[in-house]
Amino acid sequence: MKTTLTAKWIAPVSRPIIEDAAIVIEAGRIIDVGPQADVLPRYAATPVTPLGHVLVIPGMVNAHTHLELSDTAGYDDSTNHSHPPAGDSPDPSEHAAGRQNPVAWASRPWCRYSDTSSVPAKMGEPTIECPGNPSPPAFVDWLKQMIARSAAQPDQLAARCSAATIHGIAQCLRFGVTCVGDITSRPAATRPVLTRSPLRTVSFGEVRAMGANRSLLDERIALATSGCVSRRPDNTAARSNLRIGLSPHAPYSVELPGYARCLAVARELGIPLTTHLAENPAEAEFLEHQTGPFRDLWNSLPWWDQRIPRFTGGPIRLAHSLGLLDFPTVLAHVNCCDDTELDLLAAGRASVVYCPRTSAWFCHPPHRFREMLARGINVALGTDSCASSPDLNLLEEARFVHRLAPDVPPNTLLEMITLNGAKALQWDTDLGSLDPGKHADLAVFTITTPDPLREILEVSLLPDRVLISAREPSDPATSAQ
Description:
The protein is built from 17 helices and 17 strands.
């Protein structure tokens, strides 16, 4: 049965925003969208539901997160904090009709940036300062904390990951995110939850295999791809809400042959691939000399050996040498890259996922996302996890970038949290824009100004409604039972 929704504004993303708009849906998919004056006469017999003075955007796509770490809000140890304070996430109780007083992320004590008087000449982007309340740990110290956390109470880890995933799904849906690229180190715990969830997910099974653990590579790849169904056009199972992907973790935890093997498996199975890349400047030193903070990390672990291969040139050139850039690999972060490396990225097929609040918290260099976009690189936004960001509110990431880079057009930021994310996850034929044939995944915001895109970027709104295939999603806790 067809149904028509009308709204003051609809932002298809693939074309300019439409005022006094209508969208027609059948069997959970969009069949038409456009001005009411054009659409309504074509479907005169179709029931019409007026949504009112709202903006309708596609359900947002969070291209990089770790749902199983959604219980890390408030996690601390005796020496440092592992993430920004959880109280800085939007609180629904503070909203009236989905609205909260404007939030200036830059004014938060744990992450400030300077005014435009100190904009670097090359980047045109405010500098990041992290004054330390709480102070962010050094990146490798944070990794040590996360490793210690995973090692604590191992008999409860699977249950904890499952419960955290449910909590993360609830956050995503509350914030208008309907699809995620989720990294999981415990697929046996998270995928049963994701299978029953309304959230569309590419579940990237994470692989670590370096040093004495290299012998576990094939075993870990098999675990990471468990439940995988090759995505062929006639395979209905492949079109469900859960897709399987593979994630060799990072250049400091997977050796070169391990990366090559993961890429071969992804090609063979026809599944997405992602990795953390160029997240920290110390990666290049570790790859070439096996020294620096990442060697300090390995010195705290029992698996180091002398057979770990070296590479000169840094992580992006490493990825290029292995063919990762010639595959539609999802590159999480890419905080550190030079002009030549930008050229390598632009010549390839990989996407970049920039996680703004995590990047700011760790005081990484200003991200070169604008130069990447200008060179035709697909750049999406992600939240990373609650271990390095206050919550999984993807729109808050776009708001943060809007404050850092007010010259970036609002529609570009909207693309980065919708269509660009869907392209990165290889799901853009079905998601990411409001075009005929795509799923009717919608986020609906009440609007009070004549500039709806700017309003959702400058006022901390929560969506009034979130629809997946034109239906209200079920409670994640209930659906997980």
